[in-house]
Amino acid sequence: MPNSQTHGALTCDALELQTFDTGDNSELIRDYCSIPDLYFSDRRAELEPYTFMLDGIQFHYPPHIAYEDLYRYWNRDEKRLFRARPFRNENFRHVTEGFRWYISHTVDRFRCGEAEEGKKFLGCLLHMLEDSTFGLHALEGPGGSDAFILDRLSDSPVPPSVMLAKIRYRDDFPRLEYTPRPLGNSIEEMVMRLYAAYCAAAADSRRAAFRYVLNTLENRENENRVLEERMHRNAVTLCADVIRTVFQLAKGEKIPRKEPCRLDELEPYEFPFGGFGAYCYRSFVRNAAVGLDGALIPLELDSGRAEHGLSFGTHSEGALRYWIAPDTFSEFSARIGLHPAFPIQVEIELTLFNDGREVCRLTLNDSCRSAEIRITDPKNEFGLAFRSTARCGVVVLADPLLTYREE
User: Fold this and answer.
1) Same domain for 281 and 245?
2) d(CA 238, CA 203)
């Protein structure tokens, strides 16, 4: 649980990684990056304009993802199992709306020459990202639970939440060697890419936080320093990318893209869970498949192996859905099919979606184990849904590429 000094130090470290002049950041470091914690103080009226709310929830500690709706609640009719309730990713909804609001306000103020005002919005965004990746709050958010989940699982006289809440910035953290990366050439592309980066960084810091608690309980606290450094790196590099990109967007700079964007680099807002074989306790897997014994195996189709892509086990029904920034890509291409290492007894129906509309249907079975996919102008709600009469195989999405529009 970062205090104001820790927020300021993390923000300072992220600013020091920039390769261009970001101006006077003294107030950003001292005050603006702590605004969300001050909202309920006597400064509330002053800070109201910089506070984003959705459904009465402050953009500070967003909801987590209701995984139970993906694996627990089912019903059936005479023909098949089906989900008993729709899935809604409240984390995705709250976080992407908040990202869009804060990025837009920051960039707009910078473009108008109101740098100090823009940095107030930027400070709020950095605060949320720092909370999500450094200390106790890493237990929350995408893929997480509430901050006290480990307390309920532990019989330690010192609750794990207390252990994690004591994590603070150290003056002797090593200086990071990192060049901030651009997160897009538009606000919408930045929202898309930042959500993926936020999910990845939060997940890694959550694993570090869990190991931190185990080390403390097992009297191996001497091993915790490297975990604090890991969380520090996640927070600082993520914030450095954000700072670099909002300044780039404000200046109207376009970063040339030499390679397509791989779909496995992005984060879906809906995903399969609890599928065939060893996927029974897994969701989708990036750049590998999972054998029946639980070991990772290469992505493979009847047409050969792929280095990059996704795999998931089939179920009675499921989906893999992304939000794709509009006006960013000209085409999506991939090969989709059944991994040859697994048997299949029934057909799997795939429905492909783009811009929220059905664009194609495929049936995978023993006589048609894979197919090429090409979708023009991929944008907004994008992905696939599947149905089968049983858990019966592993689907591979091989070399899924989003080709950028020419700029």
Assistant:
1) no
2) 13
